[in-house]
Amino acid sequence: MKRVLTADTPLHVDQEVVVKGFVHVRRDHGKLIFFDLRDAAGLLQIVVVPSVSEEASKVASELRPEDVVEVHGLIKARPEKLVNPKLKSGTVELSAKKITLLSKAETLPFDMGGASLNLELPTLLDHRSLTLRHESVRNIFLIQAAIAEEFRNAAKTLGCTEIFVPTIAAGATEGGADVFKVDYYGHEAFMIQSPQLYKQIMVSVFERVFVITKAYRAEPSVTTRHLSEVTMIDIEIAFIDSFEELLDAFEFVGSSIVKNVSEKYSGIFKNFGIEKPLVPTKIPRLTLRAAQKIITERTGRDLSKEMDLNPEDEREICLWARENHKSDFVTVTHYPTKKRAFYTYPDPENPEYSLSYDLLFKGTEILSGSRRINDYDQLVVAMKARGVDPKNFGMYLQAFKYGMPPEGGFSFGLERITMKMLELANIREASLFPRDMERVDERFSKREEKTGNDQKREK
Amino acid sequence: MKRVLTADTPLHVDQEVVVKGFVHVRRDHGKLIFFDLRDAAGLLQIVVVPSVSEEASKVASELRPEDVVEVHGLIKARPEKLVNPKLKSGTVELSAKKITLLSKAETLPFDMGGASLNLELPTLLDHRSLTLRHESVRNIFLIQAAIAEEFRNAAKTLGCTEIFVPTIAAGATEGGADVFKVDYYGHEAFMIQSPQLYKQIMVSVFERVFVITKAYRAEPSVTTRHLSEVTMIDIEIAFIDSFEELLDAFEFVGSSIVKNVSEKYSGIFKNFGIEKPLVPTKIPRLTLRAAQKIITERTGRDLSKEMDLNPEDEREICLWARENHKSDFVTVTHYPTKKRAFYTYPDPENPEYSLSYDLLFKGTEILSGSRRINDYDQLVVAMKARGVDPKNFGMYLQAFKYGMPPEGGFSFGLERITMKMLELANIREASLFPRDMERVDERFSKREEKTGNDQKREK
Fold this sequence. Notes:
2 copies of one chain form a homodimer.
Chain A: E1 16-29, E2 32-39, E3 42-48, H1 54-61, E4 68-77, E5 92-103, H2 121-126, H3 128-131, H4 135-157, E6 161-162, E7 168-169, E8 181-184, E9 187-191, H5 196-206, E10 208-216, E11 229-238, H6 243-264, H7 266-271, E12 285-287, H8 288-299, H9 311-325, E13 329-333, E14 356-361, E15 364-372, H10 376-385, H11 394-401, E16 407-413, H12 414-422, E17 435-436, E18 439-440, E19 442-443, H13 444-447
Parallel strand pairs in A: 3-5, 6-10, 12-13
Antiparallel strand pairs in A: 1-2, 1-4, 2-3, 4-5, 7-9, 8-9, 10-11, 11-16, 13-14, 14-15, 15-16, 17-18, 18-19
Helix pairs in contact in A: 4-6, 4-12, 5-11, 8-9
């Protein structure tokens, strides 16, 4: 008999079916045993009565949470007062005739049956293969999958071709120090810090490209915002007619992801206590200096010497956008050239500032990008000015040697946008198996007899 | 004025437009200059006549292949005898009024204007940022993007959720020796050899998952079939009712990718000289032993002591499938247990053979998979029997400790399937920027003054 998903059981009232899943919680009432069976589609109440099957009762009496079972039995409509509106299967229950144990679980280290897990982060992560099964954790990654899908939909609308770029490189992507080194057949190589250079090369091939790939940051710090391995989501588009065309594409991608995912999964966002985002037709755009002026007017703080927005500023300008433009988004442009990466295009009208942009959402930056320098000589000068050795970027510079169209793009971190949309406290909650300075699956301090760990820990 | 793509120019006859792109080839006829402009959509013939614009003629006379230009001019219908049916814009040409040079290219190291490139592989790869622009190379990666998309479509049809798994691990995935080591904050870590263990964990969360991610193989050899960094495409499904359910899913994914990509891009396959694949409604299924018996009958070769199919056998059994089942596919199951990875499920009826399967296409394996051991104790025994230390796989085993449903899956390499579908001679042609023992973008021998390269080179 073919398995029926729990959510579909109301279609089978008074029929015999087979369901399969994990034992979620068990409640005994004397000889009467109830348990919730959990599958990908939700929960189903199983009722086990000795008068129906002595054998099933015996198996049920020994079931523990997370045991995997196959249950054969009769779907019965529940009396109206016992209907559970929270479950898709809430109008029915299954009266068990036969229970087969498919896999036995050890006793759980903590209760998994409640609506939330209430675990400290290290415990949550030490038991990641178990805690990911809890609905409150699992749902984070349903949202993450939806973000990736909506990103691809937006990229296709823009006419982008998907590319697959390498993650092992000969030079550190942006000349930074915090790179992981790989022993590459006896040669020195690095894990990429971003797909930036390759996606730029690829606009000379496809004009518009998108990529989802891993990037690596060996930052020697443990904060709530840093991961050593992240999933980068990038777009790059060439032959742009204007800076505004880049901003239009950038805002379209950022806002359509947030809008579409929030709408499709409104139930999950409601469970997380998150308000529907305000997505206006036209996102307000400000230069950094204009944004700072507004913040000064609102708070009295003098920002005229600041080269960037600090977290407090980002929250303030987002409040302004919400109050004045009914928008949870605001685009800030023209950051100082020297604060951005070497490939950023200086504004021809005032080269001290650059044709760069950040998209802020509910108080923090979620996407970032710029128009890029597309002239070979100008690019080499910019690299040298930042102490980046052009010799390590031969393949990148080759693209510019043979003609490179005006182009720009933007980028965001999948874990970061997941964290922001669900308002999670720590980015580790938005990574299935987070890597940081102290952990690769298990904590190093647990794995190694001698930790020798004298590394800095930031709060 | 907004840019018009070359393919859309026939909609603008007798109108002034702006086109942008790369100079493809230039042909001078005295004062009359023709050049083909190349953009993402194709080619357009540009005619530059001094009587229309002296200035444009002057700019055009200095244009070189791969220069990036913006051309303003009038779209004119071509006389019928000059129509070029090979181009989407073949019914028109553009008479240039103004040409703006957007980016200047150096003199090319070889001719890029022909239908094919005719370069040796090292030259093709040394100039990868340039050679990728050639239509014959570019099209390989249009097919690659389409394979990824059709894979995702098939995975969604099967009800899979997309997951993003780590690539840095604490243990070598399958216990192999050929792993890249990473200096991870002073700890030893490895780049994953496959997403296998994480996708298995994740079926206890989502039941059905898919993943596209990087995997790394530090094999100390240079062959036409090996890359050090590959893109793995994986599916894993749980709560299977039978082994046949796995085979159905596996064949559905493999054959629908090949079928749909071949149909959508039939023009590209035709240019590569590739016949339309034979995709039957029902792919023939054989156990390894049955396949060997057929090969023996056809060739007289005794395979009764062979534990696997060698390349010659794979070609032979595919010929048999083509002749007898009008199929370019054949599924081979039940490989010897000891020839497959430790997590492979032995056939309960004959544990010497396993519930494993390969999908062969036109003479070689393109997808591979198995049902997995889902019992904790059995898994630990299997690991130890292969010399894999369970201590290094704590997070993986945790999933099995707390109940794991019956499950299985399959996997393939994006570069490998691209290579097979386009019948490329070398897998490097199917990777944008291939990594191997001798190359990360540039060849190590070119990058380093002293190569010290005494590593084995296979032909």
